[in-house]
Design brief:
Blueprint lengths: L5 E7 L6 H9 L6 E7 L6 H11 L3 E5 L5 H10 L5 E4 L5 E2 L3 H11 L5 E10 L5 H12 L3 H7 L12 E3 H7 L9 H11 L4 E13 L4 H4 L5 H19 L5 E5 L3 H7 L8 E7 L10 E3 L11 E3 L6 H11 L8 E3 L2
Parallel strand pairs: 1-2, 1-4, 2-3, 6-8, 9-10, 9-12, 10-11, 12-13
Antiparallel strand pairs: 4-7, 5-8, 6-7
Helix pairs in contact: 8-10
């Protein structure tokens, strides 16, 4: 049996309402030489039957069970059974654009120095309270080339997981998803980027990312803000050890209670916060508070920006650039 060019890993759990459309979107790809591994993660509805019927009419779709509960286990089971030179992720509640696999495989063919490629997503909301998710997708779609992904990887996950495709040898060398009290996809991208894997994006929409109220990213503690900051802090410390000329000292821009709590996770790793940077002159805290306009000149310190408000980020970046600070050399956004 000839090996497929692309293996698509599609885990599902109780997805009878959406799974057929997800499968249809893979079935209709303009790149025909693929296999799609449908990983049943202990569904108790009719989604397994939906998958089984599809495998009977299209041999490119293969149904595999995974009894260990969790998307990391299910995805890794798909990986272990895959045969393609390229491996792509897909979720059971999303819809892939018809040229997705072709465009991404072509990108990897043409860029042999890249280990993985993602793409832009169209946000489709099915739930209330979607402002944050919509803003995240808008931000993610603005982070396209490898340099942008590297600079922005500690703000949030720079790759939407079901838009990703990677080379088989990258996963063989650096490992697949790890299971723990953290978002398994974000940990994977941070780990691969730390190991020097180049990740890019095709500059076009490749997926409809459907936001249902029951998505794991909305409800599971492994995808909470606290979980994101725990794992990003772990890899941020590794980055600081290699790139901060003033290691282990940093200044933190963001003196609110929330920003301080997130930044203070660094101290568990031996990072020393020398001062807080704030827009208020009168704030008094347990460490020195520097009014932002009184920041030392560039080259005298390293600043981590823990301000999360989206509207504030470009203003902070503009101010620091005018002061001679260079992103990645003198400062980095973490929120």
């Amino acid at each position: 049996m000839n090996s497929p060019e692309v293996s698509v890993i599609l885990p599902f759990f109780n997805s009878e309402k959406t799974l057929k459309n997800a499968i249809l979107s893979i079935s209709g790809q303009t790149l025909p030489n693929f296999e799609c591994l449908l990983i049943d993660n202990n569904s108790v509805d009719q989604s397994r039957e939906v998958a089984r019927k599809w495998t009977l009419q299209d041999s490119r779709f293969i149904l595999i069970p995974e009894t260990r509960q969790g998307v990391a286990f299910a995805s890794n089971t798909g990986w272990q059974n895959s045969r393609g030179q390229y491996v792509a992720r897909m979720d059971a509640d999303d819809i892939a654009y018809s040229e997705r696999l072709e465009k991404q495989a072509k990108f990897l063919d043409q860029h042999p120095d890249y280990g993985a490629v993602a793409g832009m997503a169209e946000y489709i909301s099915h739930s209330a309270g979607n402002k944050g998710f919509r803003k995240y997708v808008e931000w993610n779609n603005s982070v396209v080339n490898c340099e942008e992904i590297l600079k922005n990887r500690f703000i949030d996950s720079p790759v939407i997981n079901p838009t990703a495709m990677w080379r088989r040898e990258i996963a063989e060398k650096h490992g697949m998803y790890r299971s723990g009290d953290f978002p398994e996809d974000y940990e994977l991208w941070l780990r691969w980027l730390h190991e020097g894997v180049k990740i890019g994006k095709v500059p076009s929409l490749v997926l409809e990312w459907h936001d249902y109220g029951y998505r794991l990213t909305r409800n599971h503690p492994d995808y909470s803000d606290e979980a994101f900051y725990r794992i990003k802090t772990h890899y941020l410390v590794k980055w600081l050890e290699q790139n901060n000329p003033f290691h282990p000292e940093v200044m933190v821009w963001g003196a609110s209670r929330t920003s301080r709590a997130r930044a203070e996770l660094l101290e568990r790793y031996g990072i020393k916060i020398s001062a807080w940077v704030d827009i208020k002159k009168t704030r008094q805290l347990n460490k020195e508070v520097i009014f932002y306009q009184d920041l030392p000149e560039a080259g005298k310190n390293f600043v981590l920006v823990y301000v999360r408000q989206w509207y504030a980020k470009p203003k902070i970046k503009e101010f620091l650039n005018k002061q001679g600070y260079k992103e990645g050399k003198d400062f980095l956004f973490i929120s």
